[in-house]
């Protein structure tokens, strides 16, 4: 017999012996003692009883498990109590504030992880805050507060120092974080003002849609009678959200249009009346007097009206918005602010200066062209969005 034949012969019988061994194992596994079966049965019963005694897995438990899977990777704090809906809003805000995030958040991050904490470190942070349009006075306050925290608490960990800076920034904004509260008074009258091009009419459309989705009845007054496009735009928003719009022909006295709208809203028991006004430069005294006239006329019907005077500010114009706000506040007693176009500027840092210098509640922020691109101002969410993380 040749060597090749021998090898083949050995391989055949080695396979045969392997098959025999496996058959023996299978047979041995089949012969399990009754004691083993009883013990296994008992252990299964114990497991099932312990599960029944423990907390039953309900829908909330399943949702909490889903949260872990759906949590956005860029968040460091995966144990956040924010629900899925709020996470969606937050991630959208992060996306919309991308320009401010790149200008301020990313650059501040890079300073913290490249440099040693010394005088030049604070100078670089100071420079970056100024570039982001936070303003000189507010930047000085931020830097001084950060230095005090570092030296008083003997902070050395850069991550803790960055966290401290973010908390100081939140504290500045927290003072003006006051959502608009709609009372049961009917109609609750909101007068919307601002200079040309800040997006007043769009804000009215967004607010009207928001209030309508909350189940409130809403009416709009087209008080910008000098611009035909403004009336058409307001009518468009009204049709889209099935909201009535009171308007008259171009050139009509805006005070009379708003006066009539107020009477109609009261007769129809409308929850909220929002009045548009024509854009005007803050340094034009005759146009500012016109706004004062609107308030005087409305007070003839209701001495407490308007219930809210909103000033719309464009984030893109930076520090100049503060001068506008000061003059409007003196003329009209502005009670709330809406900051617009935050998605189109790297100067979102101006909101810190607005909060510091004006102390007027920021009711809403707007960050896009969609009717849903508006939300209550939340200081913590805003700062977290700039730095793309939760604290």
Account of the protein in words:
It is a single chain. This protein is an alpha/beta fold and 391 residues long. The chain has 15 helices and 8 strands. It has an 8-stranded mixed beta sheet, with helices on both faces. Strand 7 and strand 8 (374-376) form a beta hairpin. The radius of gyration is 33 Å and the shape is elongated.
Element layout with pairings:
Layout: H1 3-30, H2 34-53, H3 59-70, H4 84-96, H5 98-112, H6 119-131, H7 136-153, H8 158-174, E1 188-193, H9 200-213, E2 218-221, H10 228-241, E3 245-246, H11 254-267, E4 272-275, H12 285-299, E5 308-314, H13 320-332, E6 336-340, H14 350-358, E7 362-366, E8 374-376, H15 379-387
Parallel strand pairs: 1-4, 1-5, 2-3, 2-4, 5-6, 6-7
Antiparallel strand pairs: 7-8
Which structural traits does this protein have?
elongated; alpha/beta; 391 residues; eight-stranded mixed sheet; single chain
Biggest sheet: strand arrangement: 3-2-4-1-5-6-7-8
**Oligomer category:** single chain
Strand-residue fraction? 5-15%
DSSP helix count?
15
Average residue-wise pLDDT: 79
Largest sheet: 8 strands, mixed
Instruction: Give the tally of β-strands.
Output: 8
User: Rg from C-alpha positions?
Assistant: 33 Å
Determine the N-to-C terminus distance: 81 Å
Shape: elongated
Binned, the helix content reads 55-70%
Write down the secondary-structure element order. HHHHHHHHEHEHEHEHEHEHEEH
Instruction: Kindly name the structural category.
Output: alpha/beta
């Amino acid at each position: 017999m040749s060597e090749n034949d021998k090898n083949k012969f050995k391989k055949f019988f080695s396979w045969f012996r392997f098959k025999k061994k496996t058959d023996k194992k299978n047979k041995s596994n089949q012969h399990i003692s009754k004691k083993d079966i009883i013990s296994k049965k008992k252990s299964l019963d114990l497991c099932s009883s312990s599960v029944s005694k423990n907390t039953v897995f309900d829908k909330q438990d399943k949702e909490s498990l889903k949260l872990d899977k759906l949590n956005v990777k860029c968040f460091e704090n995966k144990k956040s109590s924010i629900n899925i809906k709020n996470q969606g809003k937050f991630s959208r805000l992060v996306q919309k504030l991308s320009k401010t995030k790149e200008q301020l958040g990313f650059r501040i991050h890079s300073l913290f992880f490249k440099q040693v904490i010394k005088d030049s470190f604070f100078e670089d942070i100071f420079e970056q805050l100024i570039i982001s349009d936070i303003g000189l006075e507010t930047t000085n306050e931020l830097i001084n507060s950060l230095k005090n925290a570092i030296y008083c608490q003997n902070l050395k960990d850069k991550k803790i120092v960055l966290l401290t800076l973010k908390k100081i920034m939140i504290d500045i904004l927290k003072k003006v974080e006051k959502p608009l509260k709609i009372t049961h008074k009917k109609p609750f009258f909101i007068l919307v003002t601002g200079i040309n091009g800040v997006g007043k009419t769009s804000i009215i459309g967004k607010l009207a849609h928001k209030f309508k989705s909350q189940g409130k009845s809403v009416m709009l007054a087209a008080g910008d009678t000098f611009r035909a496009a403004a009336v058409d735009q307001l009518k468009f928003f009204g049709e889209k959200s099935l909201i009535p719009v009171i308007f008259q022909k171009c050139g009509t006295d805006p005070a009379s249009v708003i006066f009539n709208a107020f009477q109609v809203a009261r007769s129809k028991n409308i929850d909220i009346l929002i009045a548009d006004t024509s854009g005007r430069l803050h340094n034009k005294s005759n146009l500012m007097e016109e706004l004062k006239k609107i308030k005087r006329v409305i007070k003839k019907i209701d001495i407490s009206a308007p219930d809210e005077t909103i000033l719309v500010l464009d984030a893109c114009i930076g520090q100049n918005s503060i001068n506008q706000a000061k003059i409007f506040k003196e003329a009209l007693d502005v009670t709330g602010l809406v900051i617009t176009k935050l998605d189109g500027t790297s100067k979102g840092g101006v909101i810190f200066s607005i909060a510091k210098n004006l102390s007027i509640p920021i009711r809403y922020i707007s960050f896009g062209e969609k009717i849903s691109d508006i939300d209550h101002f939340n200081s913590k969410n805003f700062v977290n969005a700039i730095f793309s993380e939760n604290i």
